[in-house]
Amino acid sequence: MPAETLSPARVVRLAAEMVRRDAEVFLLLGLLLAGLPSWMAGLVAPVPADPDAMLTDGELLRVMLANLVVVVLSGVLQVILVHRAWTQAEGQPLPLRAGIDRALRLLPALVGLMLLEGLAVGLGLVFLVVPGIILLCCWAVSLPVLALQPPAGPVEALRRSTEMTRGHRWAVLTLGVIFVGLNAAVLIVAWFAAALLLLAGPLSVFAGLAGVVANAAVSVATAAGMAALYRELLRIGPATA
After folding, report:
1. Which residue in 78, 77, 58, 56 sits closest to 66, CA to CA?
2. Using an 8 Å Cβ cutoff, are 126 and 116 in contact?
3. Integer Cα distance of 121 and 208 in angstroms
4. What is the DSSP letter of 94?
5. What are the residue boundaries of the structural domains of the chain, listed by start?
6. Global pTM?
7. Ramachandran region of residue 237, left (φ > 0), alpha (ψ -120 to 50) or beta?
8. Contact 143/75 with Cβ under 8 angstroms?
9. 101/22 Cα distance (integer angstroms)
């Protein structure tokens, strides 16, 4: 066993420090690449309020394309933020342009990684749930590996992530539960804020901003969490039998 085990509390503190160190850039990028795209997707391809309503072929296509754009932009954001958080934590800050350039160069590999991981985890969740959760824990740092260990491709990123998380997956699962809970709390607060603004008459025009800010905050927290987890796993190393 390693001399030190993975501490979820330490990862959370490290993630918070990463965000605090560069909060303005993190939140601005979160708004531009996560919050606003999600809001605009809802305007371009709104989902009917009636769950029994059938979408036309054109409406279904718009919803699919809008969601695809949101997911890809979210992946680009994660690469940029992970790269920036890592270089800042290493004391070697690079211009923001460096992270953007890397994200654009990695775009095909990033899309491949998201497709492979999404398909495998989705199937795992469908079949008894547990296999999907196991894969999520195994591949928790596949995106940081792709962003920070070039020229790792999608399959190699998944393999390296599986190796890095070996022996630490209960802690990774605990960390995932913590971040899911924190993100859910942010979204619930945003929902209540939007509801209050809708009831406030003239202020109802700002109701959509609550969701924009919440989506940005969730994306920033997720990226910082992945970067912090990757840094800790790299420092500790995988457990040995």
Report:
1. 58
2. no
3. 31
4. -
5. 8-236
6. 0.87
7. left
8. yes
9. 19
Tell me the H-state helices in the chain: 8-21, 23-30, 36-44, 57-89, 96-105, 107-126, 130-138, 142-148, 154-164, 169-199, 207-236
User: Tokens for 181?
Assistant: 């809970």
Do the beta carbons of residue 100 and residue 78 sit within 8 Å? no
| pLDDT per position as a tens digit, 128-151 | 788 889 999 999 999 999 999 877
pLDDT per residue over 58-116, tens digit each? 777 887 888 888 889 999 999 999 999 888 888 887 788 888 999 999 999 999 999 99
Structure tokens at 184: 């859910």
CB distance 14 to 228 below 8 Å: yes
**Residue 150 falls in which region: left (phi positive, over 0), alpha (psi -120 to 50) or beta:** beta
